[in-house]
Amino acid sequence: MVQQRSQQKQTLLGATGVAVLRAYLAFTLRTTRWTVSISPEAMPFLIGQDGKTALVAFWHEILPLSPALWWWAEPQNPRLRLSVLISRNRDGRMIADIVAPWRIWSIAGSSDNKGKSKGGASAFRRMRALLNRGQIVAITPDGPRGPRRVVQQGAVSLAGMTGLPVVPIGGSCSGIRVKTWDRMLLPLPFGKGHLVCGSPLTLVRHATGEAARLESALNEQMMQAEQNTQRSPAYQRTKGFLLPLDIMPSRLWYGLATLLAPVLPFLLRWRQKRGKELPTRVREKMGFASLRRPQGKLLWFHAASVGEVLSLLPLVENCLAHCPACCVLLTTGTVTAAALVKERVQQSVFAAKIGHQFLPFDVPRWGTRFLNHWRPDAVVFTESDLWPNLIGLCHKRAIPLALVNGRMSDHSFKAWQKIPKVAQRMLERFAWIAPRSDHDAAHFVQLSGGCSVGPVGDIKTLAQPLPVDWGQLAKVRDKIGERPVFLAASTHNGEEAELVEAVALLRRRHPTLLTVIVPRHPERGAGLLALFEYAPRRSCGQWPSAQDPVWVCDTLGELGLFYRLAQCAFIGNSLQTIQTSGGGHNPFEPARLKCPVATGPRIQNFSQAFEQLGAGIVKVNTAQQLAAWVSDMLSKPEKAEQQAECAYQKLEQQSELLETLTQKIVALLVA
């Protein structure tokens, strides 16, 4: 017990010491007026321009000044990551703890000598992996124990093996020299400081004199920094008050979410009573995990609702096929999406490698709890379901982020333009964004100030055909008999009244026609009975008689059945009479099942998808036009088949997108 208390006391003293030193270093570096002089040849490497990367080298004595250079570089390219090789001894770990909140990540290790392993081989592999991934790695060639200003062979070997250049850096500021082996420079507040970055060096492994070349370059930069030389035409000088990049994209959103946190459990209880949350899993919305984290690499995919889940699953499975050693965490926001994940994952050959959780609300404390448990190695968001606090928390931990099928409608674009700084800081956190269309890509580039964009393509084209219970399909066909079927899929409030008129027109021309109405939200099924003369409802187990013109199928997950049953289909949420914002639904689902499709004029949410399918989709504006199209499809089966085949062939042209996205996502796991 005494020993335990002693250890706790030492831990507390250590944490207090680190906090004090961090506060002092932050204060002195921020109050120092810095001049940053950079060789034009070094600039692209220091800011990661065009994916360039390099080793950054400086003497161990100016290690406390390194955050100032990072605070200058990171805002110019927030996708950059900096890792510094720091020894595994107690002093090295203390330095690592001090700089960690500024997203300067440490690689534990130093050169192995005298037959004693100091983690050099492991650190060497780690550095190579980070460099290959496009990150910057900083080394102190004379560390960890000197001799002072003497380059060790490990730095030359690393540069030679990677083939990457070394950028030599010198630094000086108002400060005091500590009586250590390297005479470490400790900055003083309200002084002046100079950082000088020289031209990159290409070092050849095992070549004679390479260590001396690097040594000379480092000493030259140190001399320039110490002497405070006048500006040279060969260098760029930047002055200003340096600060670390904000971790959270929006401090206002961060604070508001924190203040609302005590109220949100009551909101969850209210949602639970209305069937919008699962009682046994509602705590997942507060970041409490209900599953254990699997061993090894973990890819986290987030899909907001049913449509995103359907489009994302082929990408998830393909990533697992390319990376058998990793597992996947799939999060959703809705109960219906969770039910779909459960159903589909059970059918997958990768079922044992895919776990599902509900996404926690965007409360910093809840998000931290979620990340502490799951510790994902990479994160993939989809479409437009973006949460600033979660994105900021991932960035704080240097977890690489990607956005696939990025959607930015004109309405959302105008809204984000009102808070451009928040949008920019949020989008800058992504290593890359794969937008749904060229139109979306232009919006992302403009809001982010030039993020890495591509490839462009809609992953909904990758989804497998909607599943079907073949036994139920046979049963429905048996009940209906030879009657032709027209499907109105995913209809919304306001447009069913138009369908009433279309059904009446169609029954005059095709007396045996059965119209199947599938409302987007099944709970609206009862409200449709008055419109359609109290038609039978599938959710109540009712079947249409030979005289019933309409069958209301207010169930979930059965569109695969009805698209296979129908001779033609209309996609809802598209007529001018709808009472919701946006417009359109996924046209790829019927196209993949070779069902001829029509849509109304309001398709802005899926405009690119409809453009891709071209002549495979027919647009109608009124009930009369819809009735005329359905009649045409029923009367001319060859024409219906031709339209369906046209849409199907357009889909097949998108197959390359799956492999491209898979390779980019798996590459996030390299380091």
UniProtKB/TrEMBL annotation:
SUPFAM superfamilies: UDP-Glycosyltransferase/glycogen phosphorylase. The active site is at E308. Keywords: Transferase. Gene3D superfamilies: 3-Deoxy-D-manno-octulosonic-acid transferase, N-terminal domain, Glycogen Phosphorylase B. GO terms for biological process: lipid A biosynthetic process; lipopolysaccharide core region biosynthetic process. It holds the Pfam family DUF374. One of its GO terms (molecular function) is Kdo transferase activity. GO terms for cellular component: plasma membrane. It catalyses: lipid IVA (E. coli) + CMP-3-deoxy-beta-D-manno-octulosonate = alpha-Kdo-(2->6)-lipid IVA (E. coli) + CMP + H(+). The record marks E383, K460 as: Transition state stabilizer. Its EC number is 2.4.99.12. CDD domains: LPLAT_DUF374-like. Residues 281-461 form the 3-deoxy-D-manno-octulosonic-acid transferase N-terminal domain. Pathway: Bacterial outer membrane biogenesis; LPS core biosynthesis. It comes from the Bacteria. Residues 78-148 form the DUF374 domain. Involved in lipopolysaccharide (LPS) biosynthesis. Catalyzes the transfer of 3-deoxy-D-manno-octulosonate (Kdo) residue(s) from CMP-Kdo to lipid IV(A), the tetraacyldisaccharide-1,4'-bisphosphate precursor of lipid A. This is 3-deoxy-D-manno-octulosonic acid transferase. The lineage of its organism: Bacteria, Pseudomonadati, Pseudomonadota, Alphaproteobacteria, Acetobacterales.
